Amino acid sequence: MNAAAVPARRTQGRATIAGMTDDDAVEWLPVEDAARRLNVSIRQTQRYGNGENARLRIRRAGRRDMYHAGDVDELAVDLGAARRAKDTSPRTAVAKGEVLPASQVQAQLIEASRNIGYLQGTIEQLQHALDETRRQLDDSAAVRQQLHDAETRIAALEAERDTLRTVLERETPQRQPWWVSLLRRRR
Question: Which residues of 133-153 are buried (b: 16+ CB within 10 A; e: fewer)?
């Protein structure tokens, strides 16, 4: 039976090829578990399984690649994965009581100076952006004041227009349509 054509059954991070007996069963790992054992990224694990010089045997299980556990363990030994486990402890520049050579101290000082320069440049850029934002806020306050003044002036002009209209209506005699005067003449 072709093991590559038979789907794999997954059980707690491991898979066995369906149709095999326990004697023939080979442990197959999903890429995440293989990467964890190798202490590399998932992409790097995939690279170890692909290409002409692949170091890991792969079986397809649906849309997933399953990696041969024995190959993964051998590669982990070759890579020294156990020795280079990711260190999450904070690093110090110098261990307590250790003296650095002058060249190393000089290199660290140069790097620190570069970082200080970069940070100062960033601070200056942010300060310029802040000043520009403040200027725009001041400009917007002036524009708001001008808008308020214009609205007040418009309200005053509309009130004056209404007053003049009322006065004009009182002083101007009402004109009648032309046909009313014709009717009056005939009578």
Answer: eeeeeeeeeeeeeeeeeeeee
- The separation between CA 63 and the C-alpha centre of its own chain, rounded to angstroms, equals 28
DSSP per residue, 149-170: HHHHHHHHHHHHHHHHHHHHHH
List residues bridging with 61 in a β-sheet: 64
Domain residue ranges in the chain = 8-79
Give the chain as a DSSP string.
--TTTSPEEEETTEEEETT--TTT---EEEHHHHHHHHTS-HHHHHHHHSSTT-SS-EEEETTEEEEEHHHHHHHHHHHTTTTTPPP-SPP-SS-TT----HHHHHHHHHHHHHHHHHHHHHHHHHHHHHHHHHHHHHHHHHHHHHHHHHHHHHHHHHHHHHHHHHHHHHHSPPPPPHHHHHHHHH-
Rg (CA), the chain: 43
Predicted confidence (pLDDT) per residue in 46-64, tens digit:
999 988 888 999 998 888 9
pTM for the model: 0.36
Give pLDDT, residue 82: 63
Amino acid found at 19: G
pLDDT digits (tens, 9 = 90+) for 23-40: 456 789 999 999 999 999
